[in-house]
Amino acid sequence: MKRQLIIPLMLLFSLPVVAANNIANSEITHSQNENSPSQSLQAQAKQWGLSEDAYQRYQQLMSGPRGIQSPGLDPLSVLGIEARSATERREYAEKWVKAEFARTEKELAFQREINAAWQRLYPTILPVNIGNADGVTTGRFALFVRAKDCPTCETRLAAVLRDNRQVDIYLVDSQGNDNTLRQWASDHHIPLEKVRTRQITLNHDRGNWLRFGEGLMPVLLQQREDGWHIAAF
To answer: Model pTM?
Structure first.
């Protein structure tokens, strides 16, 4: 009988403890929820070097027409575009330039480490560009080619290589297979050193040709300040 009483007694004594813990946890969660909006707003504003009022204005702007016209646009750009004075526009322009400079410096530093790592770990393998596969660097050329049934692709590729251009090569029918892309590059004698230094990058096409190539194959594009332009085909 004593053994049978132990379990109910333990449950009886444990219930207030569990209840107290649940109440305490509820109070902590409630307190955190009360503080989190302000803390979150402050943290988000700080990331962009903005005051809370400026970040709130950004949120208000993005909840209106600007959010539909420019979804995902960063706070500095939005506030600069929607500036209420020339002074404010200049202020946000300078903040944007500083932020972009810092971002670019970090990305270039990391890219240098990636290049060095490729040479250390895979000195005989062509690196495939995966960091910027959805877009082409501004000012560079983008050459879209097919591996199969495209004799003119060979001619255009040879001309681009001969001109010593900085070019991002997109293999439209690689099916996302790195080995296919590397084998194609090897078969076409793409200079390894130029790939390592990123004068030439090798890329899988992820819809860019359909968006910008106007159905031409091969096609050489260049991005300028006023948009994409067909350079040759």
So the answer is: 0.45
